[in-house]
Amino acid sequence: MYRKLGFTLTEVLITLGIIGVVAAITMPNLIAAHKAKRLRSQFLKSYSTIQQVFKQMEADDVSTDPSTYPARTMYKTFMKYLQAPFDCQADGTKLSKRVVPCYKATSKDDNSYKTFDGKSNIDYWWFDDGQILLPDGTLIMFENSINAKQLWVFVDLNGFNTPPNRLGYDLFTFEFLDGELRPMGDIQTKYNDKEKYCNPKSSEKLNGIACASEAKNNTDYFKQIVKAFK
């Protein structure tokens, strides 16, 4: 006589229920951790790429001073040092529609980039001095005020077609200063008050612009913002 061993339907259902509960608890955390890791990796890669281009330009005795170029043309020289870039133009007005993750920067564009808290739009003219799309989806945008002698580089880590398009989350700012690319928020940069410019409770017009420094120096930064804004 042999006795058949097995599980009853009730036992199977209970087991599946337990597995489902555990998955429901752990999966959101795993997804958030993966997203944070990917954002940090994209951030560091973009920072390194832009930094290397400026160094190579200087090594080739190519000017990194925007005042030596006709208006809205410096980015074209910068673009020559990148592999397989797509020219998104300067102000985006030549883009009839968004067939690629470029930012069509016009004053009538309601789908604008947002501040850190997501409540306010960022003026389009911060991004109208040239846009470059990289093969991995990264969007590089320039603000080079000749009168103020400043050169800022905005980086959308995942392109304009991928939300949230928010300063301090997937959009970060770097300032090219004294021959060095510095994350905005560093003490030498123009916007270094993080209470005003990297604070989800702040209502400053450019809130989030100083978060690049935090993103670079704080290894848990992306974990924190993904958790805070999920």
Residue share in helices? 25-40%
Total helices: the number is 5
Strand segment tally? 6
Order of helices and strands: HHEEEEEEHHH
Round the mean pLDDT to the nearest integer and report it: 85
Number of domains: 1
Biggest sheet descriptor: 6 strands, antiparallel
Radius of gyration: 22 Å
Low-confidence stretches: none
Main β-sheet, spatial strand arrangement = 1-2-3-4-5-6
Overview of this protein structure:
Strands 1-2-3-4-5-6 form a six-stranded antiparallel beta sheet. Helix 1 (9-59) packs across helix 5 (221-228). It has one domain (10-228). The N and C termini lie far apart (59 Å). The protein is α+β, with helices and mostly antiparallel strands and 230 residues long. Helix content is 33%, strand content 13%. The chain is elongated and about 80 Å long. It contains five helices and six strands, in the order ααββββββααα. It has helices at 9-59, 74-79, 194-197, 211-217, 221-228, and strands at 86-87, 131-133, 139-145, 150-156, 171-177, 180-183. The longest helix has 51 residues, at 9-59.
